[in-house]
Amino acid sequence: MDKKILNSSIIKGISCAYQNSVSFYNHVNPYVKPEYLVTVNVAQSINEDFKNLIIKLEEPTDRLLNESSDKLDVLNHFHYIKEFKRKNENQLRKGRIDIVIYENDGQDVFPIEIKGFDTPVRNKQRLLEDINRLLLFMGDETGHCNIKHFTIAFIQEVKVFFESEITESKEQIKNEYHNLLASVYTDYLNDFKFEVHTETVFDNLFKSQADLESFPSSPSGDDVGLDEVIDEQGLFVGVIITFCRKNHLNS
Question: pTM of this prediction?
């Protein structure tokens, strides 16, 4: 599966979820909740862009474990499950993966976690929890795990005012998460590679200082005041983080 096309599909799905949220809440800059609004839109987008896939929503982690190795090879499948449980006893919490893609009759598996709109601090906390959970699968040493890479995607709001700040803002977010992951997962980097992708989901920013100053600070009559305009200004960035084993870089 081409990761660039997958990222594009995810961003398209996030953008659709944002537009849904705008229409539901009748507000230009809604906080996109609940999480399943994003999950379903992303799944639909992937389904439109890729063919011959099985896409499962809310896949239980124990089922993902069972489906992430070739069940037709009974001995290897049994060995894979046994080793996973031996190594990760009490570490794999009960839960569900938001989206799991099964390609090539299940020979290639791609879990995707979608994080609901939240503060940057909460995003980071929940991000690390999900990475740790999915790394349990990617840490397979039997060679029988069919998970090629996993992806985590979410929306982050950026407090800026001008269109000229978009590129720098996306780069700052990208570097922020890259540095965080490089620091937390230093011990994994011999075997794993991670990528951070950022893309604008929505922006409604001033074009220039003159544009900002064209609105009166104290509105009168039918004029729109600066405070009201600023309330509708915003930049929402889609963040996609992908982990893969280095021997699966071309997968």
Answer: 0.88
